[in-house]
Amino acid sequence: MTDLVIAGGGPVGLAAALYAVRAGLSVVLYEPRAGTIDKACGEGLMPGAVAALAGLGVHPAGHRLRGIRYIAGDRRAHADFRAGPGLGVRRTTLHAALRCALDATAVQVVAEPVTKVTQDATGIVANDTRGRYLIAADGLHSRLRRQLGLEAPVPAVRRFGLRRHLQTAPWTDYVEVHWSRWAEAYVTPVGPDLVGVAILTTRRASFDEQVDAFDDLRERVRGCAVSSVRGAGPLRQRTRRRVAGRALLAGDASGYVDALTGEGIALGMAQAREAVAAVAAGRPQQYEQAWRRVTRRYDVLTRSLVAVTSVRPGRRALVPMAAALPRVFSAAVDQLARPA
Hints:
It is a single chain. The protein has helices spanning 11-22, 47-55, 91-103, 143-147, 207-211, 215-221, 264-280, 286-309, 312-324, 326-337; strands at 2-7, 27-30, 44-45, 63-65, 67-72, 75-80, 86-88, 108-110, 117-119, 124-126, 129-136, 151-152, 160-167, 174-179, 183-191, 194-201, 230-232, 238-239, 243-244, 247-249. 34% of the residues lie in helices and 26% in strands. The radius of gyration is 20 Å and the shape is globular. The chain starts with a strand and ends with a helix. It has a domain at 2-62 and 88-155 and 235-309: 3-Layer(bba) Sandwich (FAD/NAD(P)-binding domain), CATH 3.50.50. It is α+β, with helices and mostly antiparallel strands.
């Protein structure tokens, strides 16, 4: 019987497998998608994520990031990372670096999804593999979250993400967040001649129609797009709990507030680390408290920001307030940039 079965071979599942190997656990990982896996995301790694990856011996190539800059019309506010640089990294580059590290281990990878889970007092069976525990890291729309009865209702207001790349030299060393009446655009340099633009919005429209709402981006994007548009959402996902017997949820499968703060990879890796620690200790229930601890800062800041910007006066006032209160803005960015 293997020690741990992991469902999902995205960054969080791969990180969980690497943490488990370091803890001396035997691992079987299920992932149906072949090759490097892409996803619509902002592709900016906060300093905490860069440090966590380095701790696993993973050093993906990318573009060094100084901090965060908010832009709304002629108003600007910026905050440098205090905890060290961030990194703009193509999602495929990040996945390839993690998978390369995994391939250097003895972890068995099964090229299929986990579709059925049963468990008893001594173990869990995922498909045909019996293990002591399961970590479900099967993403935003997790099948296992539903099967385990851990999914909770979500609010009626839904936000979606769209991402495209521009073939152009980066014009900034910051993650730029551009604000319009109904959307945010995240500009992240990810290479010497490649810039990612991700848009978060409640409005159903094409990528080009969304970009037209941002005066500072409209002309930059026109004629420079080199990738197709990828989408994700709805973003908000809720869970009743993160543990069901011997099954633990990690990453987006464990619940998701919003991509507004750009902390997803750092948070997912912290959850993977804590889930593996609970499994190694033979105390899966301790993960519930650990999950709450590592997500608390993200949850409070992200919920607050989403609440403020969900109403027009709040959206209109946010960037002027950040510019007028640079120490407050810098402190908020610093909280998000710290290791979880």
